Structure formats: C-alpha cells, structure tokens
Amino acid sequence: MHNKVVYHAMKVFSEFGLPVLRFNFRGVGLSEGEFDHGRGELEDARAALNWLTEKTKLPILLAGFSFGSFIGMQAACDDESVQGVIGLGVPYRAEGRSYSYEFLEDCGKPKLFISGTEDQFGPMDAVEPMLEAAADPKKIVWIEGAEHFFQGTETSPGPKLSLMQAAMRSWLSETYSLSAS
Questions:
Q1: CA-based nearest residue to 156, from 165, 167, 144, 141
Q2: For the chain, which residues score pLDDT lower than 50?
Q3: Strand blocks (E) in 31-165
Q4: Which CATH class for the 4-176 domain?
Q5: Residue 179: exposed, middle, or buried by beta-carbon count in 10 A (0-12, 13-18, 19+)?
Q6: Using one digit for the tens of pLDDT, what is the confidence trace for 153-176?
Q7: Could you tell me the residue ranges of all domains in the chain?
Q8: Which of 66, 90, 59, 64 is closest to 75 using CA atoms?
C-alpha cells in the first residue's frame, strides 16, 4: 500500500478526481491475519470492492501492483461494479509462486497492463503471451528499461514511474473520456 508504484498510481486516479481506496492484504503491514496463498487475499479484494461500491455508489476502476494486480484483476473481472482494470508489474514468477491468467480470457472489461521490459518477476517473453490471450479490449504497455518497481536499470538508469503514470493517464483519457484536473 505504501510502495512507490501504488502511491504513483493513486496520484493519477486522484488527478482525474476519482476516489481512491488503498489497502493491504491480510498479514501485510499492520493488517490482521496471515498470508493465505491468494485465497484469502481474493476475499480481501472482494470485501474492499464491496465496501467501495457501497460507500461511493460509483463505477469502479481497479488498479493493482504485482501480486495485487493478479488478485485484483481476478476480483474485478467477476464484479459488475468494476468498469476497468489496470495491472501494474504483472508477475509471472515471484517468491516461489507462479501466476496464470486464464481468467482474463473471459474478462471483457477494458484492461491496461503496464510492465517493465526488465521486470525480474514478469519477464516480457513469459508475460506477453499471457496478456495477449486476454479478451479485448486490452492495451499492453512495456516501459523500456524498467524493472519490477518501475525503476531504471544499469543500462537504462533513472526512475520510470512517470512513464507508468503517463500510460495510465493516456488510457484513462482514451478509454473513459476523462480529463485530469
């Protein structure tokens, strides 16, 4: 919830006047519970979406980072209140876990995927075919020289978070006719 990727994504949503809810999955930070290998975390995401739907009565756009993108996209694809999803740093293999995205093949909501070409947890050659198999509409953006946290690499130094934000702004404007304030 407090890492730079999530923070910078939240800033983009705020620029468009959209309400933002950031939360930690069970067992992360000061939240209660313990890691449940995706099952309980999917419940956490669904509970957050239900709460947000009740409180705002607005259509929801969901963005998730890394493991949060995997869990969030699953929850969002089954939730009628969610109008679109953004997956940031979409993982393929991390911390002994492998990820599979077959659920996206039936998800007809607008989708934006943003990852770095040097993402150590989501190598382009492994992730791209999975994202290409996702149902339309979708857009895949690869940030050249960015690693998993959208920082630069030795061959492409400097943070790439502003490029991630620019891709989000462009997609939100094009897909939802929104304008930043």
A1: 144
A2: none
A3: 60-65, 82-88, 93-94, 97-98, 111-116, 138-143
A4: alpha beta
A5: exposed
A6: 999 999 999 999 999 999 999 999
A7: 4-176
A8: 64
